[in-house]
Amino acid sequence: MHGEQMKMLKKIQAVEFSATELTLYLDTHPDDRAALGDYNRLASELMELKKRYTEKYGPLCVFGHGKSEDRWKWLDEPWPWEIESEGGR
Amino acid sequence: MWIYEKKLQYPVRVYSRDLKMAKYLVAQYGGPDGELSAAIRYLNQRYTMPNPRAKGLLTDIGTEELAHVEIICTMIYKLTKGATPDEMERAGLGSHYAQHDGALFPTDANGVPWTSAYIQAHGDPVADLVEDMAAEQKARATYEHLIRLTDDPGIKDTLKFLREREVVHFQRFGEALDHVQRYMNSSKF
């Protein structure tokens, strides 16, 4: 996986990480309005990023959570454990 | 239900084959304080938690731990990919080769298979959350040992990320424990 796809995936990973961190925080601070606002902003951004990624490269999630236009792209390689690191394996 | 997402939570970069490191790293796959133990421990304990915060937190941290299982497995896969039986034997993985070839298998660093005896569930939210906090600290310490056992900057980076998650989970479990104790003191529990 190279170039644009890798860049988009890394962006998704970064935004989803922030959303994950806020999820756990909100589980123990459900009344924090500022954190809630941040969470909702990140959720919108993440949905948009995943929509764009899915349209270009196929679904990140199946079971009806992502479309696969034209053909069944779910089986496209690499799987997450097969993505080669730059200059590595 | 759970939905699989075709991506890792955090990127894994491995620069060279290192069978010895794979042998050590498997501790965090199928060892007592590993990610599989963590996921099963939290996802199993959540059913008998007394309040929404604790139910939600155990569900969400348990789910994140499943993503960490995948990160550890990816590191092990990349560290061992393409190894010959002879190379595996020299790295102390001869018995692993005999039973599993190059496949992954959830054991501890000594090859002892994963067992649910590594986890507990008392149905007592204080006992369970204190176990969870201890588990996070034991996993943090294990990650620090593993970081000292490798020179691979990619492996070090991912292990540091996982170490940091243990610290955050410990903090959140502590907050949930505090809330559960206040909840229990205020109700006719």
From TrEMBL, chain A:
Domain (Protein CotJB) ranges: 7-82
InterPro entries, per database record: CotJB_dom, Spore_coat_assembly_CotJB
Keyword terms, alphabetized: Capsid protein, Virion
Name assigned to this protein: Spore coat protein CotJB
Organism: Ammonifex degensii
TrEMBL record, chain B:
Protein keywords: Calcium, Manganese, Metal-binding
Cofactor(s) the protein needs: Mn(2+); Ca(2+)
Pfam families per UniProt: Mn_catalase (PF05067)
Residues annotated to bind Mn(2+): 35, 65, 68, 136, 169
Positions that bind Ca(2+): 60
Domain of life: Bacteria
Cofactor binding notes: Binds 2 manganese ions per subunit. Binds 1 Ca(2+) ion per subunit.
Entries under InterPro entries matching the protein: Ferritin-like, Ferritin-like_SF, Mn_catalase, Mn_catalase_dom
GO function terms (MF aspect): metal ion binding
Family: Belongs to the manganese catalase family.
Name of the protein described by the UniProt record: Manganese catalase family protein
Species whose genome carries this gene: Ammonifex degensii
